[in-house]
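Re-running CCHC-type domain-containing protein to confirm reproducibility after the cluster update. Everything else is unchanged from the original entry.
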Amino acid sequence: MGGDPDDYLDQYYHKQTYMKAYAYALHPINGAHEWAKSGIEPVLPPIEKKMSARPKKNRRKAKDESKKKKPGQLSRVGLIMKCRVCGVEGHNKRRCPQQSINQAQNAHAEASNTLVVIIF
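Result of re-run:
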């Protein structure tokens, strides 16, 4: 705007203010060996306390858990399997004989529903 930059500057940053602040000589103080002794004990720093942290998990091992398995993984010893398809104990959904029969019937039904178009 063509004005003097000093007009926009605060008095704190002017050279005259700096010269006024340091016009008087600063005399050093005497060393600690010349200070007057008092009967008061010196102030000590506060006692360091261990900060509380997130508590660790209590991980218990099951009696039948072997040492070869990963932590937290239980063995299947003594577990009775029950099928989700037919409800019979002794096998699971993967080995269910009823499911294999159902799959065969579904495959046969899909094959019979398939429309075969032959164009000559």
